[in-house]
Structure formats: structure tokens, C-alpha cells
Write a structure and sequence with these properties.
single chain; 3-stranded mixed β-sheet; tt1808, chain A
Length: 228
């Protein structure tokens, strides 16, 4: 997401979203539409590697893995004004599918950072996924070759565990599934830089606090030096 409002300041729902046909991908955040930037080559490589490994593990099993574009309606049974397109999701409840979208929270979400989406994914979506009850949330950083993993506990994400490019990560919602980060980052050797997207540390802390994220979580997040 490029951080800019994509349409006039009007509140939309998923019903409105379905009528748009201007060849631009959007997300709805509390009724506000945002345009999604095109992913980079490195972003796509990581997405394909990770989703492919999860797909192999899940063959013949109940759960399924999907990659963007795929509409996830986090509050479909309420206002239906939150529609996101995570990079990767894992879904273990078949009843949440309606043929076009997912109605409710996936069991797992993976977001891959890029110069245009870092603050959005770390702050805005962190809160959305936590409130919706996404059981496991991964933030993948191609530049630092690090992954932050958040597991929900009593409605809140625990302080994120940080894994580096030579670590093996267990997927908590998929018993027995482990991901070797060396496989994920093997072709992620292009640094993605956009000087206009540098995040001011103090601003980031303020935004995180406004979202209700506790001090321990904030400390973990801002320790990712690649963000500012």
C-alpha cells in the first residue's frame, strides 16, 4: 500500500468494493480505500518460496494456503468495511470461504515488507489482525532478512520473536511445519530502498502507542533498525 487515499473521502463497504473495475488493487481500512503498490521482484520471490513450502506441507491436509491477491474481510459479519489482501494466509476453517473472499480471520497471516508498506503493515495491520483474532502473524523483512513472529494470547499478540536468515521457524498453527529461512531468503539479495519512506523513530513510537500496542511490543518493533 502506498499510504495515499485512493478514492475520495467516503466510507465504503465490501459491496462498494466489488463494483470497482479500474484495474487497481485496493484495500479497505475502516471504510477508507487505499491503493496497493505493485510488489517488487524480491517481494514476489519470497512470497512464492514461502507459500510453496507451506503448500507442500499442507498437501492432503485440512488447512489451505493462499497468496495475494485474495480478499480477506476481517469484519464481514459487522460493518464489512475492512478488506485486506495479505501476502500469504493460511486458513483451516472451510466455512469462512464464500467462493470470492474469506469472511473472518485467517489462522495465519504473512506480510512481506517493502519500501511502500512498512509502517502500514507494522502498525495498522498489526492492530487489525490482533483485533480480528488472527492466531499467528509474520512480518518478513527482505532487507534485514529477518522475520518477526507474533502469536495471539488472550486476545493480544505476545512480544514478537525475531528470527534471522539462518534460523528455522516453527509455524505454530501448523503442528510439525517448520520453515528454514535460508530457503526463503536465498534469492532475496536486492536491497529495496526508497528515501521517501524513511520512518522517524519518535513518530513510529507515537503511532504504535495510539494503536494500543504495549511497551514491550514497541521495543521489539523499533529494534528493527531497518525501519528508520
Amino acid at each position: 500500500m502506498n499510504g495515499n487515499l485512493a478514492k475520495e473521502l467516503v466510507k465504503y463497504t465490501y459491496k462498494d468494493y466489488l463494483t470497482w473495475d479500474d484495474k487497481i488493487r485496493y484495500e479497505l481500512i475502516n471504510g477508507t480505500a487505499y491503493a496497493l503498490a505493485s510488489p517488487t521482484r524480491t517481494h514476489q520471490r519470497i512470497s512464492m518460496e514461502l507459500s510453496g513450502l507451506i503448500w507442500q506441507f499442507l498437501r492432503g491436509k485440512l488447512c489451505e494456503v493462499f497468496h495475494a491477491p485474495f480478499d480477506v474481510r476481517l469484519n464481514a459479519d459487522d460493518f464489512d468495511d475492512i478488506v485486506v489482501q495479505p501476502d500469504i494466509i493460511v486458513v483451516c476453517d472451510e466455512s469462512k470461504h464464500d467462493g470470492k473472499s474469506l469472511k473472518g480471520a485467517p489462522d495465519m497471516v504473512v506480510e512481506i515488507l517493502s519500501p511502500s508498506n512498512s509502517l502500514h503493515d507494522i502498525v495498522t495491520k498489526f492492530k487489525l489482525y490482533q483485533n480480528a483474532g488472527v492466531r499467528e502473524y509474520w512480518i518478513v523483512d527482505p532487507n534485514t532478512k529477518m522475520v518477526q513472529v507474533y502469536i495471539i494470547n488472550n486476545g493480544k499478540y505476545d512480544v514478537g520473536s525475531i528470527y534471522r536468515d539462518d534460523d528455522i521457524i516453527p509455524i505454530h498453527v501448523l503442528k510439525g511445519c517448520k520453515i528454514n529461512l535460508a530457503d526463503i531468503f536465498q534469492n532475496a539479495d536486492e536491497t529495496e530502498i526508497d528515501g521517501n519512506q524513511i520512518i522517524n523513530k519518535s513518530k513510529l513510537i507515537n503511532v504504535l502507542k495510539e494503536c494500543g500496542i504495549n511497551d514491550n511490543q514497541i521495543e521489539k518493533i523499533i529494534n528493527n533498525k531497518n525501519l528508520y
